[in-house]
Amino acid sequence: MQLNDKIALITGGTTGIGRATAQAFLDEGIKALIITGQDQARLETARAELSSNGSQVLALLWRADMPEDSTAVAAKIQEEFGRLDVVFANAGVTWPAPLGQIEADAAQAQFMVNVTGPLLLLQALSPLLTKGASVILNTSCLDVLGEPGMAVYSATKAALRSVARTLSVELGERGIRVNTVAPGPIETPIYGKLGMSDEDLTQMSQAVMAKVPAGRFGKPEEIASAVTFLASDGSSFMRGAEIAVDGGWSNL
Questions:
Q1: Domains and CATH numbers, the chain
Q2: Which of 5, 90, 106, 208 is the least crowded, having the fewest Cβ atoms under 10 Å away?
Q3: How many CA atoms lie within 13 A of 88 on its CB side?
Q4: pTM for this model (two decimals)
Q5: pLDDT value for 209
Q6: Domain Ketoreductase: where (predicted)?
Q7: Which residue in 229, 176, 220, 225 sits closest to 24, CA to CA?
Q8: Is 153 noted as a catalytic residue in this protein?
């Protein structure tokens, strides 16, 4: 799955799946890597760690709810590299809530970060995408499952899956591939941002694991492996496809 001579962008590249994928890309010989995040200090720390072996890593601020950030990211990539071969739209958020507790602001924010933001970023990046470029969107196994409390999040991921289908046709005319990776429950920092107590998090984790045939949470590196395959020329015959890396959850 060599990525030699490719230039790649990963949103949400400072932690979790994004960070693991950044390292996987570097391990596969990526020519240059751009990571984005919302915190400048965390971005700089990640950039320094990822570039410690001499790799070319650029860290850029990108907030999904700020359209001007997408324009700025595209302009910087144009200035530094003039092209882009791989995009992994990874950044996302979730705030679980049953129907009676869904708040309009939280629902709108999830759609902005998980759907509209990535879509506008791809719009800005489109002129930079080379023939044969690969775009990977991070969806979720919940785009096909009904999980209580996850109505909004699941809807955003189903919408992103639809975006991938449509763009695989639109951008396919330029020889650009668009596919998705659909993680199941993964050990990432996102669970610490749910505002739940440790006891509630433990109960939730146990309930989730009981539904997953693999009997455990996945690791960010396991998602990174699938993304690396989709980024490579080894997946050149895949367009509009989704790879489920969910321990078998979506098969039930």
A1: 7-245 (3.40.50.720)
A2: 5
A3: 32
A4: 0.94
A5: 85
A6: 6-175
A7: 225
A8: yes
